[in-house]
Amino acid sequence: MARDGCLARVTAGFAVGGAVGGAVGAVYGTYEAVRFKVPGILKIRYIGQTTLGSAAVFGLFLGAGSLIHCGKSY
């Protein structure tokens, strides 16, 4: 039973991290695309790459943090 709770926590941590990372990545990617004057349709690609990369990294770290925290009992 404790394993299911731990898996749910890790999954939730990954999902929350992905959502936060995606939001931050979209804002940062838009800023960088405008700042570096990325031309035309490449702007969408640049923003998408930044969004997905940031979401993956944030999700990974929040999921890992949830996994580490899951083993502790207070």
TrEMBL record:
<feature type="transmembrane region" description="Helical">
    <location>
        <begin position="51"/>
        <end position="70"/>
    </location>
</feature>
<dbReference type="InterPro" id="IPR018450">
    <property type="entry name" value="Romo1/Mgr2"/>
</dbReference>
<keyword id="KW-1133">Transmembrane helix</keyword>
<keyword id="KW-0812">Transmembrane</keyword>
<dbReference type="GO" id="GO:0045039">
    <property type="term" value="P:protein insertion into mitochondrial inner membrane"/>
</dbReference>
<comment type="similarity">
    <text>Belongs to the MGR2 family.</text>
</comment>
<dbReference type="Pfam" id="PF10247">
    <property type="entry name" value="Romo1"/>
</dbReference>
<dbReference type="GO" id="GO:0005744">
    <property type="term" value="C:TIM23 mitochondrial import inner membrane translocase complex"/>
</dbReference>
<dbReference type="GO" id="GO:0030150">
    <property type="term" value="P:protein import into mitochondrial matrix"/>
</dbReference>
<feature type="transmembrane region" description="Helical">
    <location>
        <begin position="12"/>
        <end position="31"/>
    </location>
</feature>
<protein>
    <submittedName>
        <fullName>Reactive oxygen species modulator 1</fullName>
    </submittedName>
</protein>
<keyword id="KW-0472">Membrane</keyword>
